[in-house]
Amino acid sequence: MTGPASLPGVRRYRGIFRAVVAGLFASAVVVMGLPRLLGAVALLPGDAGYTLLREGGLPAPQAMERMLDSRQEAAAWLPDEGTIPFDLGFLDLSLAALVDRRSPDSIRLLESASDHMRRSIALRPGWPYAWSYLCAAELARGRPEEARLALHGSWRTGPYVPELASTRAEMAYSLWPRLDEQERDAAGADLAVVMNEQGPLFYELAVDRPAVHPLVRSAFAARPEVSARYEDLLAFRRAARSWGIPPRPPVVRLLPYLQ
């Protein structure tokens, strides 16, 4: 069978998918809260996975599928302001992170997630979260130009969203050759937010990964003070290694098993 997963470039962009989904899931819980994110689902019968989601866990795929079915049925009678397709796309992405990336189920779920996020954006175009989830879905499908446009939409609708900053920067790394100067500067703004507000995560995102150092330097090109701080952190890290201090352990995220 020939599908999106077999096309050139898909493997490259899907490599970060699990970490991106973990970061987006965490941002959804922190900012919106699962009671609002999946508000109507809580009122539906047979939703054993909802409590686990509220507590920051991830239900089994079967429970996630029941939640999808319930949400699709509820769409017929719930008022919609863009949250119903968003919730469905969110669950599609969460399920896609659990199945074999080369399977027909993964392809179907990612296509569905993309469609739902586009419908959410059509109803609520100023919501940066839907744009970010759309970027994640398009990256995983191996569609970098569509992903870039979605990431651009997230930056345009929410330039300062600390809960999305690290995930948007992670996605920007994969799209770097396609980003224009304005978009790279937006990535720099997100990285500066992570540096200032989520220090341990910044080490994992930008200091302990030599491959991204040139990208981060480019992102900070218009921010000399931030750039100087970054160079100080790199110098300190090099000194720490010479003293035998190991790299910082990975930051424990909400869904570490998706990374």
Main traits of this protein?
259 residues; mainly alpha; Serine Threonine Protein Phosphatase 5, Tetratricopeptide repeat; 2 domains; 0% strand; disordered N terminus; disordered C terminus
What would you note in describing this structure?
41% of the residues are buried. The protein has 2 domains: 1-166, Alpha Horseshoe (Serine Threonine Protein Phosphatase 5, Tetratricopeptide repeat); 180-254, no CATH class. Mean pLDDT is 76; it is low at 1-16, 29-50 and 249-259. It is mostly helical and 259 residues long. The two termini are 28 Å apart. Helices cover 66% and strands 0% of the residues.
Q: Give the overall silhouette.
A: elongated
The structural class is mainly alpha
The description of the largest β-sheet is: none
Q: Would you identify the CATH architecture of the largest domain? A: Alpha Horseshoe
Secondary structure tally, helices: 14
Instruction: Detail the poorly predicted runs.
Output: 1-16, 29-50, 249-259
CATH class of the largest domain: Mainly Alpha
